[in-house]
Structure formats: structure tokens, C-alpha cells
Amino acid sequence: MTTGPDLLSLNIVCPPPGEGGIEVRPIVNGRDLLAEAVPPRRDPWYLGVGPRYLLDHDGPLRAAVTPHEVRIGWSGCGVEECCGALYMTVSRDGDQVVWAQWRDLENPNVDLPELRFAVGQYETEVRRAEQDRSWEWPSGTVARLLEAGLRRREDWLVRWECELEAVWASRQEPDRIQVLLRHPAGRADTELPWLQFGMNLPITTDAPSDQAERLEARLTSGDPRATAEVWGGSHHAEQLGYPWPPVYPWSK
Questions:
Q1: Of 12-26, 118-132, 177-191, minimum mean pLDDT range
Q2: Which residues contact 14 (CB under 8 A, 6 or more apart)?
Q3: What DSSP assignment string belongs to 83-146?
Q4: Where do the DSSP E strands lie in the chain?
Q5: In the prediction, which pLDDT does 1 show?
Q6: 213 dihedral zone (left: phi>0; alpha: psi -120 to 50; beta)
Q7: What is the largest CA-CA distance in the chain?
Q8: Are 170 and 201 in contact (CB under 8 A)?
Q9: Closest C-alpha among 129, 121, 118 to residue 92
Q10: Cα separation of 56 and 74, whole Å?
């Protein structure tokens, strides 16, 4: 047990393509926090959240006076309602950053202590991990930049009654990325019909920033629903006037 501030290291694990996902594993005082979260029921019990989301600039690990919750691990099939996910609350308390209020609704045996890091060491480590892009592959960079650009274009999304779900990239399909939109916006937790639109976008060997800029300009020049396919939706989604049942991209 440490008598001073806890020490944080953020370890980015990057196995070969097809042998597991890229994850961030917090190491606290030299010990793997996720491995010790609960008595293991599978190996490993918790997997770390990917660096693209956990270590984005101005991302969730940045601490402020106002506490906010961070999803730091997941388990099993990846569906939180089925196999759970590990959350903690991060906040700033004077010259310390605090991780506390651990929870996993599917696994009540989570028993982790409150952790307190010195602000200087904590912020230095988070910045170091944020700046480390050695794990990122070219199409992943395009996807990250394109998603950031599209999320800034709220006018485009509002005009076509859409919300951006995600821009995906797979290391096993390095020549393409996928854009997913939901239409109409704001219906995720309602009984109203909704559709998921998706599109496959080819990736070249051009500079990722140039490709992201061109793809953003192309997508935002018109109605994305005109060229996208229906990949999913809710019951009675055909009421929205699009072909049904959906096309399943993974079955092509």
C-alpha cells in the first residue's frame, strides 16, 4: 500500500490484427487495475477501452472540478446490458486527481478503492498517452479525423435530420472505413421508428488528413441518405419510407 499519491501509467496494448483489440490498461502503483477489479470469471475479466476514445485530446480522463463519469473497461460480448462495463468518476480535488465511485451494474462485486494522483504526474501521463499515436493505422487515423470533422458540422446533421453514431475502422480491412448515421435524430431511447444508415468509404495511401478533409467535404455537400444504405433500425422503421429489411454489411 502506497503512503503517498497513487502513481498512474497508461499502457496501450496493441496485439497483431485479428488477435484482439487495442486497449488502454491503467497501471496504478505498478499493478494492472482492470485485472484486479473483481475475482476473475474469464481471462481477462475486464478489457480496456480503446485509446481512440479514452485518450482523445480533451478526452474523458482529463480532470476538472466538476466530476464526470468515465467508462474505463468492458467485458464479455461488449454489450453493457449483457456483460457489464466498468465505470469510475474522475474529479479534481485541489492538487490531486481522484478516481472514485466505481460501478458495474452487471457485476456488483466490483471493489476498488478511491485513488488519488498528484495533479502534475497525472496530467503529464495523460498528455503523454494522448500524444502516442504509434498504435494507430492509416485508415484509423482517417476515421478519427473524419468523425471529429463531422461532429463539428451540426448544421449538416440537423438539415438532414440525422445524428452521427460513429465512424469505424478495422485493422483487418485497412482499405475502407464505415460511417454510421441514425435517422431521425433523438430517437434512440424512444418507441418511435428510426433507421440506421451506413456507408463504406474507400481509403487510399494519400495522407490521412487530406483524405479526411475530402471525405468530409463530399459527405456534407448533400443529403447522406441519398447514397447510404439502410443497415438497421427499429420495428416498423419502414414507416419512414426506406427499403426494408435492412442490408447487413457483414453478410456481403
A1: 177-191
A2: 22, 134, 135
A3: H-EEEEEEEEETTEEEEEEEE-TT-TT-----EEEEHHHHHHHHHHHHH--TT--HHHHHHHHH
A4: 8-13, 23-28, 31-32, 47-48, 68-74, 85-93, 96-103, 115-118, 163-170, 173-183, 195-202, 229-233
A5: 47
A6: alpha
A7: 64
A8: no
A9: 118
A10: 18
Q: What would the mean pLDDT of 6-21 be, rounded to a whole number? A: 94
Q: Residue 8's beta-bridge partner residues?
A: 28
| CA angle centred on 104, ends 101 and 109, rounded to 5° | 90
Q: How far is CA 69 from CA 62, 85, 87, in A?
A: 11, 12, 7
The three grid cell numbers given for residue 243, joined into one nine-digit string: 427499403
Cα distance between residue 197 and residue 98, in whole Å: 40
Residue 215's SS3 state is helix
Cis peptide bond prior to 15, omega within 30° of 0: no
- Please give the Cα distance from 83 to 25 (Å, whole number): 19
pLDDT tens digits, residue range 111-169? 899 999 999 999 999 999 999 999 999 999 999 999 999 999 989 999 999 999 999 99
Mean pLDDT of the chain: 89
Relative orientation angle of helices 138-152 and 208-219, to the nearest 10 degrees: 40
